[in-house]
Design a protein that fits this description.
Chain lengths: 221, 274
């Protein structure tokens, strides 16, 4: 609805964003959120209410708080293991300097914790998005930008949905990119999955795998 | 038990009637099939070609147009020439259309994009629209038409194409009702559905997977990366897509192609949609 792509293609541009919203589009978005939330409540609460699901989730694939610290785990997986780690709070930039988002920390560290952390984040996100949509500031969609600074070195951190995403850019003397490196949260968290699988049943592999929900491409494909 | 029943009642029946009914409504900002009116191109303007991140746009000059397109080429010889847009390389980013001073190039929400041949994706003089995919030849249609098992190979892309293929398995789209299914091993499969630019890391795996599919087999390339490398075109760590490595039977362009575009392509291949 925002940019014609389910993956936000064309939205993030240098100097701003690719598409703007008007009140009609905001209303349509809010309506869609209401529908999605209703479905989400029904479907997801069924998980916690179903004993066979909880029997599989609880205690499976545990990742202790200490292990999460030692392995450098990030994102919801870290928060599920009790770490208060969220770039939106630890290194806030942009809107996150002004808006406080509650951090979802469950702490018990198994599949259930990772699932429940996500559920809490869904609820926090719904409220956050609604607040922001109802308070869209005026302003220019995209500002013109000039050439890149020469001999520059920039590191950015942003909280992606799996955890922190790091971009590093280095420019040469002419201001062209000489190196651009992206480190996905998945790169950090695969070791967490490997650790959580220790001593678990082989039939619980898919469950543990999906509880982390990492990107293969974001690691080594 | 009661909660499960309540949930089922709340959810109701969600599977769309398409193709028996109209396709689902698409977002108004969706960038689908482009429309090119080369007659509107200002003389010597190459803004679109220069802005294209994958060099999908090229220009056929008058003389070349004359050699290529016969009468059509002759008609084009007068103006700046024919604009050629290779949808196989196109990321549908829309930069070209945004920069065009005369709206000679614009994207429409037309979702039907799948073709059987690579060259059917090259829009330009003489080909204003892609030549939509026709069904498999009778022998393969007889084998796969009512039961198509595909092995998905994710060859190092961003996962958007994978996600938009995956969603076809959910209850709204329900790919299973067409007897199209994704299987756990190439040995169970009738063909491959490839996404991603084929990184060096995945090259051997892809070749082995293809070799492990029993004959006769088909290959479907979904997304700009799998067709021609996408934004990784020419990158040393990738192989410019599966199109360069394997015989492809169905090309579905996009970045990523909308699930409806992918479904339309698969159904065309099986003769369920014409």
């Amino acid at each position: 609805m925002l940019c014609g792509s389910r993956f936000g293609r064309g939205m993030i541009r240098p100097g701003g964003v690719g598409f703007d919203v008007d009140t009609a589009r905001i209303d349509a978005l809010l309506h869609q959120l209401d529908l999605a939330e209703k479905d989400a409540h029904v479907a997801i609460n069924l998980l916690w209410d179903t004993p066979s699901v909880m029997a599989r989730f609880e205690g499976t694939g545990p990742l202790s708080r200490q292990a999460a610290i030692d392995l450098g785990i990030v994102g919801p997986a870290a928060r599920a293991s009790g770490l208060q780690r969220d770039i939106r709070q630890d290194q806030p930039c942009g809107l996150f300097r002004f808006v406080h988002l509650p951090m979802a920390v469950v702490g018990t560290g198994a599949v259930f914790a990772r699932a429940y952390t996500r559920w809490m984040e869904i609820l926090h996100s719904l409220r956050f998005v609604r607040e922001q949509l109802r308070a869209m500031p005026a302003g220019v969609r995209q500002v013109p930008y000039g050439p890149l600074a020469p001999a520059g070195f920039v590191v950015t951190l942003n909280e992606g949905w799996r955890g922190e995403v790091c971009h590093v850019a280095i420019t040469d003397e002419e201001g062209r990119f000489s190196r651009y490196k992206i480190v996905d949260a998945s790169f950090r968290n695969w070791s967490g999955l490997a650790y959580a699988l220790r001593g678990q049943q082989i039939s619980d592999f898919p469950l543990c795998n999906k509880s982390f929900n990492l990107s293969y491409c974001g690691f080594d494909l | 038990m009661l909660k499960i029943l309540q949930a089922r009642l709340q959810q109701g029946h969600r599977t769309m009637r398409y193709p028996a009914g109209p396709p689902p409504e698409l977002p108004d900002r969706l960038r689908g099939h482009p429309v090119i009116d080369a007659g509107k191109c200002p003389e010597g303007c190459r803004l679109c070609a220069e802005s294209c991140p994958t060099k999908a746009i090229s220009f056929v000059d008058g003389e070349l147009g004359g050699q290529l397109g016969g009468q059509l080429g002759g008609q084009l010889a007068g103006n700046s020439g024919g604009l050629r847009l290779d949808l196989g390389r196109c990321l549908f980013c829309g930069d070209c259309a945004a920069l065009c001073p005369t709206k000679a190039l614009a994207f429409t929400p037309e979702h039907r994009l799948a073709t059987r041949r690579r060259e059917d994706l090259s829009l330009g003089p003489g080909l204003p629209q892609v030549r939509l995919a026709e069904a498999l030849e009778p022998r393969l249609l007889g084998l796969f038409g009512r039961s198509l098992k595909l092995r998905q190979v994710s060859a190092g892309g961003c996962n958007a194409c994978e996600a938009d293929v995956n969603v076809l398995g959910t209850v709204g789209w329900d790919l299973g009702r067409f007897s199209i299914q994704f299987v756990a091993a190439p040995r169970h499969a009738d063909g491959l559905l490839i996404t991603g630019p084929v990184t060096q890391n995945m090259l051997l795996a892809l070749k082995k997977t293809f070799a492990a599919v029993p004959e006769p087999k088909i290959v479907i390339a979904v997304g700009a990366c799998a067709i021609a490398g996408g934004p990784y075109l020419g990158h040393a760590q990738a192989c410019d897509g599966a199109g360069a490595l394997l015989p492809v039977d169905l090309y579905i362009p996009g970045c990523p192609p909308h699930p409806l575009t992918i479904l339309d392509g698969l159904l065309r291949l099986l003769g369920r949609v014409t």
